Amino acid sequence: MVSRATKIRLGVFLAIGSIVILLFVIAVAGNRLTQKWDTYYIMFQNYPVSGLQVGGTVNYQGIKVGQVAAIKIDPEDVSKLIVTIDIEQGTPIKSDTEAVLSLVGITGLKAVEIKGGTNEAATMQPGTFIKAGSSMLDDFSDRALSIAEKIDLIATNIGDMTGSQNQENITKILSETSLLLADTRANLSGTLESLNLIAQNTAGVTDDFS
Fold this sequence. Notes:
Layout: H1 4-34, E1 37-45, E2 57-60, E3 63-73, E4 80-88, E5 97-103, E6 110-116, E7 129-132, H2 136-161, H3 164-209
Parallel strand pairs: 1-7, 2-6, 5-7
Antiparallel strand pairs: 1-4, 2-3, 3-4, 5-6
């Protein structure tokens, strides 16, 4: 049977533990509530943002500076997606910066990466749109698509060249070329015989003069 002293100690332990957890939650929630943010927007047109989630990370030059606040379709143009991001107040976002999506590990999740920017450029005001840029992955995908399209075009051209009509034309050209070569060989042979005969006659004449 559990003694009264043990119950008291257990109760005190649970009470202290609950208080510590409650203080921790209050501290975290209070920090989030008192955190001041600058809100910016990014517009992606005809660009899928799969893997990007509300609450996702926003990095600036590789440093975490904020989070994704909202993702929605532009009600006036369904080809556009508007991503709302909250950035730590005072973070200098320059007018020549670009926002791209980057993979987070191998999970398939994505984060917003703000890159570029120069000291000479003007600082953007909160509530404005950050220009959407392209990442290395996008560039690689575009090049791969371009290569695939060129390969498909080459394959189509080869298919056209090997079509029945073209095969007949090629066969006809080769046949005519063969006849032309045969005629050329015959003419060349006759010419060589004529030259040989002329040479023999010339030799005979020179012998008569000697």
